[in-house]
Protein: DUF222 domain-containing protein
Organism: Streptomyces erythrogriseus
Amino acid sequence: MRADLLTDAVEGLDEALGAVDGFDQVLVGGLLRPQPAQAVGLAALADAVAGSPLAGRVAEAAEKTAAGAADEDHYLALAAARSALLGSVHDALVARVEEAVGRPRGELPAATADGAEHPVNLLMATRGWLCDVARAGWQGIDHELIGGAATVVTAMLPEPGLRRLATLLDGFAAELAASCPGATLERMPVRRWADLWSRAMLLTLPGADRATAVAEATGRLLPLGVDLHEHATAVQAQVHAVFEPADGGTPRLVRAGVSAPKPDTVVGAGLWQLLRPHMSLLAAVSEGRAMELDAMPVTAEGDLIWDDARATQGEPAEPFTTARVALPTAAAAPVAPVDRHPARIAVPVLLEGYAVEDAGEGVAFRVAGERLAVGTGRVPAAGPLTADAVASSAACLGLLRWDAGQFLLQPLAVERTVRKKAVAVHAGAWAGGTADKAGVRAEKAATDAVNVLRERAGRLLRK
């Protein structure tokens, strides 16, 4: 891997992110009565997209908003401009990563599948609430304002095509509610809240969330590792893998995800208990095996719509062997326009022959003379992989991400030498169950917590 390409400056990146940051500060104070400093941020956003098809609409939206005379369509144009800038940043960073790793990328199909039309009234109600929040700004939020999202979310949940937006809106409202009143906040996640707001605004456009074409995948799936995401009320595991088509076509990078609601008392290795019943792939990951797929639905973006009935356990397939043999020629999946964002970059890579640096600021790898930060804080506690294991490794299989202005490696697995033998340690080693003593203790604690919760829930239902 050409590590120097990951440290070189990307032309125009700072300017694009500066325009985004300027608009995000406008949202802090609110769009109802912008101050002169906010007007500068609005003008900078319009200038940043002046050479694009959005130029006219965004210029008008910025002018009307600065004057306090904007309507919902103007706010939608501002959200689109912000998302377009972050999309351009995403594309520039992905192009740099592709050049560094020398891996091809697929193209999105020209046409997308027709999706069901969503109730326009629910989309408009969502947009109305989002605009009210933007007018108040993060400093002006209160419980009465944020509480208005509950009825909209409740109305959207019965509509399968609106659940993505409903989940986003519900989580966003919960974060804002936990921070009310905004006037008392000393610190706030300005970029994150602006991300959630602008994405939700775009999803209120009819057709913006229409499903892309779904094909069928038949062949061998070779897991690389598991990326675990934990929230106070939910957990998700995303398996990154190489798919080898049965017809001998080009291998592809794909993902398979599973999520489940969770009580806040279930943490660590106990999380796998919530996920295992929904995906047999997790057991294959733990056992180091491939999966044979038969007509498994897969989107153009490389997301497998997992169905256990279409998968059977295959032969042993060690992830590091897969990374050395199959990963270099696997084509990366394209990204839908609405999903282009730097935070979504997660490119599987294998690093070997690096030097480990630990200067008190966290672990980093010295690759071909260049320093690459390692996100050991992203390694989940629900597995045997630790920061110490990463620091003593000789090979690392991970996800290349963009975080806080730099490329960062999130370890999925490492190889280290123990008694003169190479031993692999995987973050998802406990996904399908484990005999490891630490894992068994964590599983038992989680089982006890779940049993108590089930017993209490049963008591409440009997009442």
Remarks:
- Residues 72-101 form the longest helix (30 residues).
- The chain has a mean pLDDT of 89.
